[in-house]
TrEMBL record:
The UniProt record lists the keyword rRNA processing: no
Keyword Oxidoreductase assigned: yes
GO molecular function, one term: oxidoreductase activity
Pfam families, A to Z: adh_short_C2
Top-level taxon of origin: Bacteria
Entry's family note: Belongs to the short-chain dehydrogenases/reductases (SDR) family.
Protein name, as recorded: SDR family oxidoreductase
Keywords tagged on the record: Oxidoreductase
């Protein structure tokens, strides 16, 4: 399989670090011209892609990205909605404010909805395109004391993705979802650090507690960002041209369902 993306224009939101950076680099190696977004620019020497600064948890952020991208390239062929994070405080329902819930949905659901709405007219006009929404295994395995708003937002993203695939399939556009499990990223390390501080335990103990909460990992380790990116690269390519409307778990066998 060639996984060739030559002459394709790809957008990766949240593309400066972690899974997003790995995806951007993978698409670039496959021949795509890659545009990345984040709230802050990557450090010098850490980015080979066209960067657009934007806060995608706001309506203006999506408009900034779409206007800038279309002005520079005139079209987009691949959209990877990767921007997202679990940012709410731990502790369950009593610790969560309306603001916490709203922020999780703005960042983890509405950022993708707005980017897609802004850029889909150009895809529809060219009768081709691929949208891959990066969700999370947490959507199917919510942890009451850690991920409830995040899980709910990602579950909504899954439903949105499935519905959108039905609308856009006849227009030549594929929509897919990729749901990573526990991945070794800077955000995951920050999450574990915050968890350790809140529980007054060491980071090693916090990491062990997290693994115990989500269940045993059959493969015995966290995923590396590149292992998620490799699947995304395949799904974005013509080799996957008959795939749409499906959610792919990259969880090392974690999910206890058939």
């Amino acid at each position: 399989m060639s996984y060739s993306l030559n002459e394709k224009i790809a957008l990766v939101t949240g593309g400066t670090k972690g899974i997003g950076k790995a995806i951007a680099d993978t698409l670039h190696r496959a021949g795509a011209t890659v545009v990345i977004t984040a709230r802050t620019a990557p450090k010098d020497g850490e980015n080979d892609h066209y960067f657009i600064a934007a806060d995608l948890s706001t309506p203006d952020g999506a408009l900034t990205v779409s206007a800038n991208l279309l002005e520079k390239y005139g079209r987009v062929d691949i959209i990877i909605n990767n921007a997202g994070a679990n940012t709410s405080p731990n502790g369950g329902y009593s610790t969560l404010s309306d603001e916490d819930w709203n922020h999780e949905f703005q960042l983890n659901l509405m950022s993708a909805v707005r980017i897609n709405k802004a850029l889909l007219p150009s895809m529809v006009a060219q009768k081709s395109g691929v949208i891959i929404n990066i969700s999370s295994g947490a959507a199917m395995l919510p942890l009451w004391d850690i991920t409830i708003p995040y899980s709910a937002a990602k579950a909504a993203l899954n439903a949105y993705s499935k519905g959108l695939s039905g609308e856009l399939g006849p227009k030549g556009i594929r929509v897919l979802t990729v749901s990573p499990g526990v991945v070794r990223t800077p955000l995951m390390e920050e999450f574990i650090d915050n968890m350790a501080e809140a529980m007054n335990i060491s980071t090693d103990e916090a990491a062990k507690t997290l693994v115990e909460k989500v269940g045993n990992l059959p493969l015995g380790r966290m995923a590396e960002p590149e292992e998620v990116a490799n699947l995304v690269g395949f799904l974005a390519s013509d080799e996957a041209r008959y795939l749409t409307g499906t959610n792919y778990l990259v969880d090392g066998g974690l999910m206890p369902v058939v």
